[in-house]
Write a structure and sequence with these properties.
153 residues, mainly beta, 8-stranded antiparallel β-barrel, 1 helix, 5% helix
Length: 153
């Protein structure tokens, strides 16, 4: 017997509006940044709004690899609250990463930005989010982060 092949299926997109970057400085393992999540929307098989609280806690390592850990929540159009912890990484050519830091546009295809979101909810209709693994393919823009969420089948 062989193990099942991995496949994914697109499920929904999270567009998280972000606030101004707060920098805590060099911590010994990199530069710690905190980026507030101030709203947004969820579209696709699940629809709703990103709630206006939470943040992305980042560490920018000396080689510009960025470790990400976002914690936030969204409310579905039918009233369910879904808590999200989304860990991941962003990496690419240094000059492009520096452009992103300055808020300049960069083709998302040139930056490796992947995440692994985990979900929690007490709403029965969305419990399946807690019973599967998901991966995200993301893009950073000056005022938002867009994450296409795929279910690993």
């Amino acid at each position: 017997m062989t193990t099942p092949a991995l496949e994914t299926k697109y499920v929904f997109t999270v567009t998280a509006k972000i606030g101004d970057v707060i920098t805590a400085g060099e911590t010994g393992i990199g530069v710690r940044r905190i980026i507030p999540i101030i709203g947004g929307e969820v579209t696709g098989a699940i629809t709703g709004k990103v709630l206006p609280f939470g943040a992305d806690f980042q560490t920018i390592r000396p080689n510009e690899l960025i470790d990400l850990e976002a914690k936030y929540a969204f409310e579905t159009d039918d009233g369910a609250i879904v808590y999200v912890e989304n860990k991941g990484m962003r990496f690419g050519p240094v000059e492009l990463l520096q452009k992103l830091k300055r808020g300049e546009p960069v083709d998302p295809k040139l930056i490796y930005f992947r995440t692994v979101p985990q979900f929690e909810t007490g709403h029965e209709k969305y419990r399946w989010l807690m019973e599967h693994i998901f991966v995200g393919s993301a893009a950073r823009h000056a005022d938002r982060v867009v994450i296409d969420v795929h279910q690993v089948l």
